[in-house]
Amino acid sequence: MVITCSDTRTQETDTSGQLIRTLLEARGHTVVGYHLVKDDPAQIQWWIARGVINDAVQAIIINGGTGISRRDSTFEAVDEMLEKRLAGFGEIFRLLTYQDIGSPAIMSRATAGVIKGRILFSTPGSENAVRLAMEKLILPELGHLVKELNK
């Protein structure tokens, strides 16, 4: 399941959400849901809760709302729902981002973890950040993570 958190994007202009879906499908994954929601904690949590009760959803990938502006609330919405955190995802994502763009990487609050037996990734909303997270971290490990959660 893919969730884009944005106050300004539409389904037509959501290139990051489209990129996530394209990359997942190119690797043989099925996207069973795509949702574009306002950067509002209640809406974000509602869609996550809907995803984790759907047996077809094994992973949720969220993009957007991970910065530090007043409206960026995705991190808080996600973090309070996680049962287990994968701190290494955010740490390595910020390192790779730093290598690419330098010190602005410290503003990213990318995170990942487990909720109700599903893996959840939350990335920044920029297309470059999404591509980096997907190609370097998420896609190489997604199958392994799902397998571990189903043991």
Outline the fold blueprint.
Blueprint: E1 2-5, H1 15-26, E2 34-37, H2 41-52, E3 59-63, H3 74-79, E4 84-85, H4 87-101, E5 111-115, E6 118-123, H5 127-149
Parallel strand pairs: 1-2, 1-3, 3-6
Antiparallel strand pairs: 4-5, 5-6
Helix pairs in contact: 1-5, 4-5
Describe the structure.
By secondary structure, the chain is of the alpha/beta class. The chain is built from 5 helices and 6 strands, in the order E-H-E-H-E-H-E-H-E-E-H. The chain has a 6-stranded mixed beta sheet, sandwiched between helices. Helix 1 (15-26) links the parallel strand 1 and strand 2 (34-37). It is globular. The chain starts with a strand and ends with a helix. The model has no long low-confidence stretch (mean pLDDT 97).
